[in-house]
Amino acid sequence: MRYISTRGSSPAVSFEQALLNGYAPDGGLYVPEHLPTVTQDDLRRWQPLSFPDLALEICSLFIPSGVISRQELRQLLGKSFAAFASPDKVVNLLHLPGKDDGRREQPHVFIAELFHGPTLAFKDIAMRFVVFLLDFFLSRREGGSSPSSPPRLHVVVATTGDTGPAAASAIEECRHLDCWCFFPYGSISKPQERQMTTLVGGNVHAVGVRDCPLGGDSLDEVVIELFEDRGFMQKVPLTSVNSINWGRVMVQIVHYFWCYLRLCDHIAGYSGLIEIGQEVVFSVPTGGVGNMCAGYIARCMRLPIHRIVCANNANHAVTRALNDGCFSRKAMVATHSSAIDIVVPYNFWRVLYLASGCSAQHIQQWTRQFYESDQGAQIDSDTLTRLREALIGCVVSDQDTLLTINECFVNNGYVLDPHTAVALSAYRSLQPSLPPSLPCVVLATAHPAKFPSVVQRALRIDDYSALPAKAHHPAIERIFLRLPRLRLCSFDDFRAYIRAEMEAVDGYRVRVRQSKDDKVQGGGF
Ligand SMILES: *Cc1c(COP(=O)(O)O)cnc(C)c1O
């Protein structure tokens, strides 16, 4: 299987190259040449598998065994999930009990806790694997076959809060990678900031940027400039593990299959809520659309998903596109669900590409319209019909986010993080327009302990220590006992500073490496 660009003007590449490149050279995103499909028999065969084994089956559909052997793939997946609270299950699916206040019984609503990794957000699931895979490819290259390729890569991450910590925590364990986390200073939560600034590995560099006009999107722009600067790239070899990286999307396909198969099991007093083949709904708090794109692909692969609810906050480019057929940018609005404050949801290009019947021509035209005209990209009616068969959008206000957190705690005794609250609230609003009694899986993308100030506000608790036990997590308490290491600058200076800083660090790495090589060869001083 090879990978092609959504913009159609770059050559097809191997899985390895797609992973190392991040973006395709024409600025498009890599997609598999064709999507595999699964049968109900496959699903039955996969039902007893552990999460890592299911991931092995699904990833094998996208990675030819010539690129990485099944055994190596198994090891890397095992290593990726070993740091989770439950390495066999990874994702915890639980039933949200119905309200008993006389209102209509909740249909079968389930919460899929995707946040049991080391940084307590769903990003850990795919990020660890992609990072370890990059390190694996680099080790292999170092081993011989292509000596001219860089022995070390700088991974650049612009983060709205959870990508940076997930990347940093995985990269800290890697030999061949440096991690640069850029974040809009003040716009992410303190626990998120600490998760990046208290790592001890000297290869993690957290950079807070003040006064970003578009929040995280401003940082994305600078990252893209770095990648387009060939002179700089030659000096400092870069890669990206942002959600545009194909590897991230690929691994996120797994949790849709996993949750579906768990609904077919006997859980929470239900004896197999559904039979294999019956449809379900997923509700996804959506920012950069990596997660929802994975769900869309799972549906294209024939996982029986009725619809995916695209749960947006006030930054709702995707919901607008689904409703009006027009994909456009608007100014960023800072919300309580800051990890999905995204103005340019990059992975939506992949979804559009697939829904347009893989038309690179359409993508080129829409990209021009998106960036150059105020109206944005006008999606044609065939594509729009296909999008609407799979996706349904909903916008959730900050007020409803707080209310949902509050209600869910009072009625269900469960503490939601703000993003999961957006997804639950969106599902509840759309439920009347969905066929009755379909089970819904709400993807819980972060632990509430990552967003204490929003949870405090929702539960009307002034004192942090008075938050319910479920809103705390020992991993978060621990990082507040540590000394942060943070590079800080203003957005105006950022472009210049970051180039100089990265060059300085890269130069240092090269010197250290050369002195080691000299020792190995018995030379040196
Ligand atoms: C990143 C993130 C999301 C959004 O995921 P996308 O793939 O970018 O749409 C939702 N919730 C949380 C907590 C996140 O960190």
The mean pLDDT is: 92
Helical/strand content category? alpha/beta
Q: Please state the overall shape, judged from the principal axes of the Cα atoms.
A: globular
Strand content: 5-15%
Q: What can you see in these coordinates?
A:
It holds the Pfam family Thr_synth_N. Belongs to the threonine synthase family. Its cofactor is pyridoxal 5'-phosphate. The longest helix is centred in the C-terminal third of the chain and has 30 residues. It is built from 20 helices and 17 strands. It folds into two domains: 321 residues, Rossmann fold (3-Layer(aba) Sandwich); 137 residues, Rossmann fold. The strands form five sheets. A six-stranded mixed beta sheet has the order 3-4-16-11-12-15, sandwiched between helices. Strand 11, helix 11 and strand 12 form a beta-alpha-beta unit. With 525 residues, it is α/β, with parallel strands linked by helices. The protein is globular and about 70 Å long.
Give the topology.
Layout (H helix, E strand, L loop, with lengths): L2 E3 L9 H7 L8 E3 L7 H7 L4 H12 L7 H12 L10 E4 L13 E5 L9 H20 L10 E6 L4 H9 L5 E8 L5 H8 L6 E7 L5 H13 L1 H6 L2 E3 L5 H19 L1 E2 L2 E2 L8 E6 L4 H11 L4 E8 L4 H8 L1 E2 L20 H8 L4 H13 L4 E2 L2 H10 E5 L2 H15 L5 H13 L9 E5 L7 H8 L14 H6 L7 E4 H30 L5
Parallel strand pairs: 4-16, 5-6, 5-8, 6-7, 7-17, 11-12, 11-16, 12-15
Antiparallel strand pairs: 1-2, 3-4, 9-10, 13-14
Bound molecules: pyridoxal-5'-phosphate.
Pyridoxal-5'-phosphate (PLP) binds next to helix 11.
Cofactor: pyridoxal 5'-phosphate
Organism: Vitrella brassicaformis (strain CCMP3155)
Protein name: Threonine synthase
